[in-house]
Amino acid sequence: MTAREIETELLQMGRDARDAAKVLRQTPRDVKDIALRATARALRKRSAETLAANAEDIAAARDLTPAMRDRLFLGSTHIETIARGLEEIAALPDPVGRELAHWTRPNGLDIRRIATPIGVIGIIYESRPNVTADAGALCLKSGNAVILRGGSEALRSSLAIHAALEDGLREAGLPKTAIQLIRTSDRAAVGAMLKGLNGTIDLIVPRGGKSLVARVQEEARVPVLAHLEGICHVYVHAAADLAMARAIVVNAKMRRTGVCGAAETILLDRAILASHGPAVLKDLAGKGCEIRGDEAVRSIFPEALPATEEDWRTEYLDAIVAMRVVDGIDEAIRHIETYGSQHTDSIVTEDANAAEHLLGALDSAIVMWNASTQFADGGEFGMGAEIGIGTGKLHARGPVGVEQLTTFKYVVRGRGQVRP
Amino acid sequence: MTAREIETELLQMGRDARDAAKVLRQTPRDVKDIALRATARALRKRSAETLAANAEDIAAARDLTPAMRDRLFLGSTHIETIARGLEEIAALPDPVGRELAHWTRPNGLDIRRIATPIGVIGIIYESRPNVTADAGALCLKSGNAVILRGGSEALRSSLAIHAALEDGLREAGLPKTAIQLIRTSDRAAVGAMLKGLNGTIDLIVPRGGKSLVARVQEEARVPVLAHLEGICHVYVHAAADLAMARAIVVNAKMRRTGVCGAAETILLDRAILASHGPAVLKDLAGKGCEIRGDEAVRSIFPEALPATEEDWRTEYLDAIVAMRVVDGIDEAIRHIETYGSQHTDSIVTEDANAAEHLLGALDSAIVMWNASTQFADGGEFGMGAEIGIGTGKLHARGPVGVEQLTTFKYVVRGRGQVRP
Q1: Each residue of A36-60: pLDDT tens digit?
Q2: Which residues of chain B lie closer than 8 angstroms to A105, CB-CB?
Q3: Could you report the predicted ipTM of this complex, rounded to two decimals?
Q4: What dihedral angle (degrees, nearest 10) is formed by the CA atoms of A270, A276, A279, A282?
Q5: Which residue of A15, A350, A417 is the best one to mutate when testing the B interface, meaning the one whose CB has the most B CBs within 10 A?
Q6: What global pTM score does this model have?
Q7: How would DSSP label each residue in B159-191?
Q8: A111-120: string of b/e by CB count within 10 Å (b at 16+)?
C-alpha cells in the first residue's frame, strides 16, 4: 500500500472507532462481560490456529535474540493464561458509571461527577502477542474503542488473537470495530496514529521498550499515558532493620530484573555501611547480580566495578545494580530527584519520622516505606490487570487499570434554576 | 532582545520555576495563605500605581474596540474585587495532601492516593490584567509554580499586579520565582513556553479567545487544559414546563452572552413548537436577541433570519441565537453530538425518563436537566475560583479549580513485604 492508501484506511478506522465508541459508552457491563468471556472461549477454541500462526511468526523473524524469542513465543499455557486474564477482567467491577463525587448546592442544584469512557484509545506495542488480548479487553471493559498496532514480527499471532476478540464482540452483539487491529506492518501507520487520526484518537498508550516510548512521547499530537523508564531506588536508611533491608533489596532488584518496578540503584546510608553493607552486597552478588559501586561501596566490597555518573541514570533491566553511599536522608532524596524517573522509590527504615520525611519529599508516582519496589503493579495494587504504568503528571500516575482508562462528566439536575 | 536571548532567559525561568516547585510542593497551607492575604493587602496598597500603569496601557493601546477596552480597563472597584478574590482563594481548603483513596491489601500493604501539586504551570492569557492575580493565586494555593504570559497590551498593568504577588511571596518567605511573569512582549516567548522550556513546564492553561486557544492546542508539546469553544445547547423537550422553559432559555442565552457557558443553540421539540415556541421566541426577541431559525421556527416567527449550517457550528458570544426544531429527543442528541463542543448542554423536561436518556447519551463535560447552562462555572459548582473550563478527555473536564490543578502520588506503607 502507498502511504496515502495507508492513511485513508487508518482515517476510516478512526471514524469507525469513533462510531463504536458511541455504542460502547452506553453498553451495560453484562454485555461487555459477555464479550470478554466469549473471547476467552474463542481463544481456547482457536488455540491450535493461534499457535500455528505464532510458529510462522517465529520462523519468519530474523536475528531473533533469546529475549526477543521469549517475548514473541506463545505456547498453550500462554493461551490459557491470556484466556483466564480475560475472565478476570470480566469479573472486575464496571469502571463506567461510578459516582466519583456528589454534592448539592445551596440553590438546590444536584451535581454528580460520573465516570465515563475516554472514547478511542490507540495502543502501540511491540512483539508480545498477549498485549493484543489484554489491551483489547481492558479498553472494552472500560467502554473505550481501541485501535491496536502491534509489532510487525508478531502480526500473524496478533491477527489470530484478534479473530477471537471479534468472535467475542459478535457474540455480545457489539460492533466489531470496537477493537480494531492495524493489519499493515508499514511504520507510516504509527505516524498516522500519533497524529490522532483526524481527532478521533483521545489517548495513546505505548507498551514496549524505551525507544518506542520515546518516539511516541516525542511525536504524539494527542495525550500519551506511559513511563519512559523505571529508574527505581531503594534507600537503606540509617535506622533500617538489617534482615528487612536484605530481603527488600534482593527482592526489589532480583525477583524479576526486566520489569519496570525493578530497583536499579541502591542507596546505602553511610551510618549502616559497615553494619548492613556487606550482607546486602553479598546477597546480591550471591544471586548473580553485578555490582557497580562508588568508592565507599568498593571499600567494603572490592569486587564491585566502579560506578560512573552514567550508572545512576541507567535502567539496566538486568542483573546489574548501581550502589551508592549517601550521607543521610536528604542526600538520598537529592540523588533520587536528580537521577530518578519518578516511577517507584522505597525507603527501608524503622524510623517513622525519616520515612514520612522521604514519602512527603519525593514526587514519584509511587513512594514506599519498607516494601519492595516490585509491588509497583496494578495487580499488586488490587486494581486488576493494568495496561502499563504512568509517570506523567496528568490524568493518571502509577498503574493504569480500567478505572484509569475512564474520564468523567458532571451530571447536574435542577428544578428550573436560572443563574442570578 | 534576540530570539536566542529570549529563549535563554525563558529557560532560566523554567529552571527557577522547577526549583520553586520543589519548595511549594511541601509548603504548608498556612504559609501559602499568608502569601495570598499579604498579596491582597499589597494590591490595595499599590492601588494608585496599578491604576496609573493601567491608564498607560490603555493610552498606548491602538485600535481599541469598546470590548477590548472593557477587558483591559482596571478601576479601583476591580482592584478591590481582585483582592477579595485572593482572600477567598486563601480561605479555600488546601487541595494538596487530600487523601483521595485508601485501602489495605491482603498482604498488609497500606496504599493511599494523595493529592500533590502538578509542578510548573504555564498560563498564557490575553488582555485581562486580573488573570495575573487570579491565575497566580490559584497556582500558589495548589502548590504549583507558575510562569505567566499575559497580553502585551496589558503588560504594565500585569507588572504592577505581579509586584503585589512578589510582595506576598516575600512576606510568607516563599521564593519569588514561585510566580514569574514574562516581561518581554515578543511572541517568541509563547512559542518557547509551548515547547515546555526544556521539560520544566508540566501543563499549559490558555485563557482567552478561540484563536489563542487554537494556537496553544495546535503547537503545545506539553499537556493543555482548555476549551476551544462553548457551543452550549438548551433542548426544550416535548414534556417541558412552559414557564420553566422560558426562564431557562432566556437565562442561558441572555444573562451574559460573552461567557463560555452561554447557550448558542436552542433546540425546540416539534411537539411543543406551537405551544411553547412563540413565547420562548418572544422572550428572546424582547431581550434584544437576534433569532436565526430553521424553516419551522420561521413558520411561527417570521422575523427570524434563516439559519444556515454554519449557525449550528457558531459560538456567537453575543445576543444572537440559532434555533432549530427537532423531531424528538434522539434527533436533539444527534444534533448536539454533531455540532456541539462537549462543553455544557441542558434538557428542559418534566419527563424523568427522557432527561435520564439524554444525560446518559451525551458525552459533554457538563450535562444538565432543568437548569441554565450559565451555571457552568467553578464558583457556581462550589469549587471556588476557576482558572477555566476544560473540554478535553483527560485529567480534568468542566471547571478547573484548585483541586483540578493537583495530581496525586501513591504512598505505600509496609512492614518489610517482598513480592512473591
Answers
A1: 999 999 999 999 999 999 999 999 9
A2: 380-382
A3: 0.95
A4: -20
A5: A417
A6: 0.94
A7: HHHHHHHHHHHHHTT--GGGEEE-----THHHH
A8: bbbbbbbbbb
